[in-house]
Specification:
This protein is an alpha/beta fold and 381 residues long. It has two domains: 234 residues, Aspartate Aminotransferase, domain 2, CATH 3.40.640; 130 residues, Alpha-Beta Complex (Aspartate Aminotransferase, domain 1), CATH 3.90.1150.10. It has a seven-stranded mixed beta sheet with strand order 1-9-8-5-4-2-3, sandwiched between helices. α5 links the parallel β4 and β5. The longest helix is centred in the middle third of the chain and has 32 residues. The protein is globular, with a radius of gyration of 21 Å. The two termini are 23 Å apart. The structure holds pyridoxal-5'-phosphate (PLP).
Length: 381
């Protein structure tokens, strides 16, 4: 029996010795290593500016904070996402306005966005769900017509391209995650990329208390001014050292993911009782975060039995995400959306099983996952 983990950090000797080198030096924060990580991530994505942060949640929160989104402001958000996408709006004091997903990709249903815009709307939050790009031409046309900010949540989208351009570069900022099951990891970590020099400069200050000088920029040690409000959302040199080594591995990771994805996709498409999302086509290039299988109405009540069968046979699974965000208790109690308000996001959340295509696996693992899934459906029929 195989032991196929849903996510496995790919940490090698290079990461270990890079961390050791930082630990043997004197600078653990505010140093050259996080700068080098920013430069290498900017180079991979072709971003004019990149700012390292402690997580993607910090990146999202700081984006809204930087732009002054607060009480009385509305932000359009997808219902089908991680709660962090929406928490960031709440933390800033804004009001999330949820939009349902489209069934082909799980991304936001763009046809519903414009009718949700009110005079209070300040921003559109875009999530490239499971690494499939949203049609950013359409989103940017709506945003520029209504003069709205666009914040891209690219937590699952390292290696996602729309029209040959890396996502995160269409909107005002793109926010990335380096949590262990993501495309690359720094244990915890995040990054903002942006085309705006002033936003990068502001966020660089606001991630570190809003002080006007980092320790190396101070002519007299310990002397600085605080020119704005800010957080402690920095990334340490230890985390950044891992990141530099991981960025070098992105091309290899992505090609293994792509190979795995198409192997599994091909095998699972033979099953009539499940449906799969659209993937890379034309100008839409996925980052292949995972492969989510949607069960039909007959199988949906048996979802956790199927998960149990897979897990017992050594196939790790997950769910992206367990509920549409407005269905989580916090949001249900606060906004009281009817249970049937987001039918497509509900269908995805309540009927899907996420399977791994990560670079720790190969096509033999994909064959095993597909065969085990087919066996599970047969045995539970
Ligand atoms: C779409 C999305 N946004 C944001 C986050 C939060 O990322 P982090 O854990 O780096 O704060 C996640 C985490 O899985 C996510 O899936």
């Amino acid at each position: 029996m195989r032991n196929i983990k849903f996510g496995k950090p790919m940490i090698g000797e290079a990461e270990k010795s890079a961390v050791k080198k930082v630990l043997e030096g004197d600078i653990l924060v505010h140093g050259p290593v996080s700068k080098e990580f920013e430069t290498s991530f900017a180079s991979f994505t072709t971003a004019p500016h990149a700012v390292s942060l402690s997580s993607c949640t910090a990146a999202l929160h700081l984006s809204y904070f930087h732009y002054g989104i607060g009480p009385g402001d509305e932000v359009i958000v997808p219902a089908q996402t991680h709660n962090a996408t929406v928490h960031a709006v709440e933390l800033a004091g804004g009001k999330p306005v949820f939009i349902d997903a489209e069934i082909k990709t799980g991304n936001v249903d763009i046809s519903q966005v414009e009718s949700a815009i009110t005079p209070r709307t300040k921003a559109i939050s875009i999530v490239h769900y499971l690494g499939m790009p949203v049609d950013m031409d359409k989103i940017m046309a709506i945003a520029s017509k209504h003069k709205l900010l666009v914040i891209e949540d690219c937590a699952l989208a390292i290696g996602t391209y729309f029209k040959n351009r890396h996502v995160g570069l269409f909107g005002d900022v793109g926010c990335f995650s380096f949590y262990p099951v993501k495309h690359i990891t720094t244990a915890e970590g995040g990054m903002i990329i942006t085309k705006h020099a002033s936003v990068a400069a502001g966020i660089t200050r606001q991630r570190a208390f809003g002080v006007d000088r980092t320790p190396s920029e101070r002519s007299i040690p310990g002397i600085y001014d605080v020119t704005m409000l800010g957080f402690n959302y920095r990334m340490s040199e230890i985390h950044a050292a891992i990141g530099i080594e991981q960025v070098k591995k992105i091309p290899g990771f992505l090609s293994q993911r792509e190979e795995n994805y198409f192997c599994l996709d091909k095998a699972l498409r033979e099953i009539d009782e499940v449906s799969l999302f659209d993937s890379t086509h034309g100008d839409f290039k996925s980052s292949y975060y995972c492969l989510s299988v949607m069960l039909n109405d007959r199988l949906t009540p048996k979802r956790f039995e199927i998960v149990d069968y897979l897990n017992k046979k050594g196939v790790g699974t997950s769910v992206y995400y367990p509920r549409p965000v407005p269905h989580f208790t916090y949001y249900r109690q606060k906004y009281k959306h009817p249970e049937n308000a987001f039918p497509v996001a509900s269908k995805i959340s309540y009927s899907s099983i996420a399977l791994s295509v990560g670079p720790h696996l190969n096509t033999e693992d994909m064959d095993y996952i597909a065969t085990t899934m087919k066996d599970a459906l047969k045995s539970l029929a």
